[in-house]
Amino acid sequence: MGFKTQSDDDEAVSEINVTPLVDVMLVLVIILLVTAPLLTQSVNVALPKTASTTPDIEKQPMQLGIDAQGGVTLNKAPIADLAALETTLQNELVSNPELTVHVYADEAVNYGKVAEVMAAVQHAGIAKLAFVTIEK
Fold it and tell me: What is the pLDDT of residue 28?
């Protein structure tokens, strides 16, 4: 009985055992087959029918526009100066305490003008101000 402690040839073993890889792939396929039908199931519910509703026009945000020349409009009506803008917004705020203002500023308008308009909106007491942009 002769046992070899070292191999006589110095060749590298170039075999790969693929059995664990096949086992893992089979488990993943089984998981996919079991979970796919569960993802597509839905619950059939008879939803109640209601009368159609109209949007609340009172809660619509105010549209504040600033054109390239620095002209200010509120809901497409021209505003003479920032004091008139503050007065108009304060009057609107009395009737609607949750008033929101959307600012539509031209990209060519001076940043200083936008800052002045924002300050006028803040002085009027409006806390909800949003800028409207267009995605490119």
Answer: 95
